[in-house]
Amino acid sequence: MKGDNRRCFVRGIRDGIPIALGYFAVGFTLGIAAKGAGLTALQAAIASFTNNASAGEYAGFTVIRTGGSYLEMALMTLVANARYLLMSAALSQKFRQDIPFGHRCLVAYDVTDEIFGICVSVDGYLNPFYAYGAMAVAIPGWSLGTGLGVMMGNILPAAVVVALSVGLYGMFLAVIIPPARKDRFIATLVLLSMACSFLFSRTPYLSRISEGMRMILLTVAIAGAASVLRPIQEVDSDAA
Amino acid sequence: MRHNTWIYLLIMALVSYVIRALPLTLIRRPIRNRTLRSFLYYVPYVTLAVMTFPAIMDATGNVWSGLAALAAGALLAWLGGGLLPVAILCCATVFLMNLFL
User: Fold this and answer.
1) Which of residues 12-51 of B touch A (CB under 8 A)?
2) What residues 60-79 of chain B have any CB closer than 8 A to a CB of chain A?
3) How many CA atoms lie within 13 A of B54 on its CB side?
4) B52: CB partners within 8 A, 6+ apart
5) A63 in a domain, yes or no?
6) In angstroms, rounded to a whole number, what is the distance separating the alpha carbons of residues B29 and B35?
7) What is the DSSP letter of A237?
8) Residue range of the domain that includes B75
9) Residues in chain A where the model's pLDDT stays below 70
10) Which of A141, A168, A195 is the last residue of a domain?
11) Is A232 at the interface with chain B, CB within 8 A?
């Protein structure tokens, strides 16, 4: 069992490295937004270390910049991060039932789009140490990137920063495309989701809905419809 | 009233954490409701797809290099490429395309 945890930890680090690189790049650009809100490099790094959320932090920095109330800060953070509620609920199903409270609390610390993405795609149950491995490289990459972004502003050539910023999307594709290839229904869902997302971002009025809110609305609507149209087959016997 | 940046940061951290910790600690047994299980199964595909597009198109300052990265990344992922190769291919595509556009 010990050896198994170690193996999972190492595998988590390996899968976490591309995430950490992407985080570093995105954190860097987020640092520039933090700087605009008047944060120091240390404050920005701490914000990233304690939040682990790009959209949520960006929304938070906006509140700080505009001097909004503490209540507004709480609501903005809640809405911008609401999808993590869904992701954590989904992730809870990847845990063996007897995983202790402490492990659940630790894994919860870094449920991000990317860490969630790799954690749900492991076969069978999720070993918490896999998540820890990914967190061990992703969190430093994220918070150092943000801090450095404030400090160094535009030290990297813009062309490099821009190129690195799509690395995250590449990872998303690597998570959603292989299952879509195996299952035409998932492929349809993926295409439909992208089409709706595009429509929301380009249509007057609809485009005023914030990105976080768009994500919540479309996820609830499309995944909700899918769950009614094609409920998954019951395969794991312990869940029946 | 002047707001304290550290209190802002504390609120952000608390809300972000509680949102994630509640489901993971409260939902301790397999969810039996088939519709809910199906919903949670489909959530990541929809969310990640929504986040990827059209954002990838708008991230590079040039729609075409973003679309090229999407096409290249999707193709490699389709052929079975892992997280890192697909990510690197997307970055390289944008870097090269932006040199010429």
Assistant:
1) 12-13, 15-17, 19-25, 27-32, 34-51
2) 60-61, 66, 69-70, 73-74, 76-78
3) 16
4) A169, A172, A173, A176, A194, B70
5) yes
6) 16
7) G
8) 5-100
9) 1, 153-154, 212, 234-240
10) A168
11) yes
What is the extent of the structural domain holding A205?
183-240
Location of structure tokens 């490295």: A17
Contact B50 A109 (CB under 8 A): no
Residuewise pLDDT in 10s, chain B (101 residues): 578 999 999 999 999 999 999 999 998 777 788 888 888 888 878 888 988 899 899 888 899 999 999 999 999 999 999 877 898 899 899 999 999 87
Domain count of the fold of chain B = 1
A41 and A128 in a single domain? The answer is yes
Q: Is residue A174 part of a domain?
A: no
Tell which A residues from 32 to 71 touch B, by Cβ distance under 8 Å.
38-39, 43, 46-47, 50-53, 56-57, 60, 63-64, 67-70
CA trace torsion B63, B65, B71, B76 (10° rounding)? -150
Q: Are residues A29 and A145 in the same domain?
A: yes
Task: Give B20's contacts in chain A (Cβ within 8 Å).
Answer: 84-85, 87-88, 108-109, 111
